[in-house]
Specification:
Layout lengths: L3 E2 L6 E2 L10 E2 L4 E2 L11 H32 L10 H20 L1
Antiparallel strand pairs: 1-2, 3-4
Length: about 100
């Protein structure tokens, strides 16, 4: 069984493929909408997703700071404490993604 190469994008497809991932239709030799294309979000959906990401980012950031501050205060007599880098950095990244999404709309 031989594979066939898409003339539009160069992707190799199985012989039984009717359509390439890029949208090229092998039977009609035309380009249709790609199956793998992500539907674009409306402005309201983008703004809502941005707001949600900012809230969760702030919660992760503040939660990481609280855990860090609490364990640091408990270890003031010379014990060990935890610095939650992961939660703090994740919160910052998520918050920035939210700001970018919110400003796209």
């Amino acid at each position: 069984m031989a594979d066939k190469k898409c003339p539009r994008c160069g992707l190799w497809n199985t012989e039984s493929a009717m359509r390439c991932d890029c949208g090229y239709d092998f039977t009609s030799n035309t380009v249709q909408e790609s199956y793998s294309a992500q539907p674009s979000l409306s402005f309201d959906e983008l703004k809502q997703r941005g707001r949600k990401r900012m809230i969760f980012g702030a919660l992760w950031f503040v939660g990481g700071l609280i855990v860090t501050a609490t364990t640091y205060a408990a270890a003031s007599g010379g014990g060990t404490y935890v610095i939650t880098y992961g939660a703090i950095i994740y919160g910052i990244v998520l918050f920035i993604q939210g700001v970018l999404d919110y400003n796209k709309s």
